[in-house]
Amino acid sequence: MEPCDKRIKDAPPMDMRTSTSLFSIFGFGFDPKTNDYKVIRILGSYPHLEVVVYSLSTNSWRVIDSSPNTSYLINLPRYPSYLNGFHHWWAEDEDIEVGVNNDDRCLLSFDMSNEVFLEELPPPPAVGMTYGDIAVINDSLAVIYPYINDLGSDEWIEIWVLNESGVERTWTKILTIHIPFCWRLIQLRRMVW
Asked: pLDDT-based confidence at 157, cuts 50/70/90?
């Protein structure tokens, strides 16, 4: 799609050698240096990863040299996770013992201009065993943690934002919402956005 005039453009097919991959993870964003929209596709079957980038301006796919750590399992975001030239995912070290542990995860970011991956800070602290969803809220990178107690009678959501003041980047909890059991995260999305 051409965002300015709302025309749809089909990307050309990719090289067939990439079709043997076991998984495929996508990202989309804008490169402010070249004024171009790009699609990132991470293809692979562990431990091999291949990253291809589609450029709207050239209407072509190309393999790039940069790739994330091959031991990472990359989690697809449920919400838009592009902000200021970077697309973001959670990455979890596959070599670490199985289980939900935020210490095993990091924010994996793809720099649209330099076409490199950055392994950044870990997620904010979580209560118990839960995964947070990356989102963009009010021009800030955010994490949304959904919680539910063992009996299913109490449910709440925490929203954390990434503060980027000066050199240090830290997570700050901005909101905790206690919600009725029947209300779901998708309804929160309508309210916040």
From this structure: confident
